[in-house]
Design goal:
Blueprint lengths: L8 H8 L1 H30 L3 E2 H8 L3 H13 L3 E3 L10 E4 L2
Antiparallel strand pairs: 1-3, 2-3
Helix pairs in contact: 3-4
Length: 98
């Protein structure tokens, strides 16, 4: 009897149970590369304090908008601080917070 049969709802439930596990694994697989890219940005700023968004994006091969989002997240987490306040997004510069 097939698991998707209307006569066996328990079998249907068991056949669907592994699906969320696969989604969780996929989320973890996506999260890890994101952490590596954030670590690359932190390493770039460590080598070049005062690095601007545009230069960091170019050095890492990512768009300015992507670099700006990552830098904003790292700033919010307290790992880096912005050195300039009134500059355009591409010209903002950053350094490590400690």
């Amino acid at each position: 009897m097939a698991a998707h049969s209307n006569n066996n709802p328990a079998a249907l439930g068991l056949s669907l149970a592994p699906a969320p596990c696969g989604l969780l694994l996929s989320a973890a697989d996506i999260y890890e590369p994101s952490l590596r890219r954030d670590a690359a940005i932190l390493a770039h700023i460590a080598r070049r304090p005062g690095a601007r968004t545009h230069h960091g994006g170019n050095a890492l091969g990512i768009r300015d908008a992507t670099a700006a989002r990552r830098l904003a997240r790292l700033t919010k987490a307290g790992l880096i601080v912005r050195e300039t306040e009134n500059e355009t997004r591409a010209l903002q510069s950053f350094r490590h917070s400690a």
